[in-house]
Description:
The complex is a heterodimer. Chain A is an all-beta fold. Helices cover about 0% and strands about 55% of the residues of chain A. Chain A has no helices and 11 strands. In chain A, β6 (about 55-60) and β7 form a beta hairpin. The radius of gyration of chain A is 13 Å and the shape is globular. By secondary structure, chain B is mostly beta strands. Chain B has no helices and 11 strands.
Amino acid sequence: SQQGEEDPQALSIQEGENATMNCSYKTSINNLQWYRQNSGRGLVHLILIRSNEREKHSGRLRVTLDTSKKSSSLLITASRAADTASYFCATAPDSNSGYALNFGKGTSLLVTP
Amino acid sequence: GAVVSQHPSRVICKSGTSVKIECRSLDFQATTMFWYRQFPKQSLMLMATSNEGSKATYEQGVEKDKFLINHASLTLSTLTVTSAHPEDSSFYICSARGFTDRAFFGQGTRLTVV
């Protein structure tokens, strides 16, 4: 079942700017993951942050997690046109659920040259 | 990293026919596999969870007689859309989990029912 909510739903920025996307969720989690999806294509795993972590970096990506607020943010710095895609957060529940991920509704990012 | 291969990537079928989609974990044994469906401009919705050698667990609202899932081995799960109709047209994507805390996704299958 879907439990994540991303905002904004759509984001349009120029190359070089930073893009910030937020995700909120409802139940306790084991970890939270961010994925990218280009139009009509499969998912690309970007980063996984565990419930006991607060911040994680990977290249131009920075993810934060606030379990008290049940929220996460994804920051893409120095954006490029190739970053244009939909971005989804997905939570892995903190229970023996077989590890199915609950996906948010996604943020559609457009980076213009 | 672990590789999950999904086949076919695209399929067009006539209304009333059945379509089988395969999901293989290539370099690890998948104890659990998941099937998701994604309608255009929407998010991924979990359809079912399958464990090797046992019956799949379907999410509420997913018809198990229409979406047959078989997970006969630790490296292969199949989803068969039976008697497909245009409203079943969607993007279907599988993921597989081994013995770590990550699940790995296939490339997805675009199903178009005409």
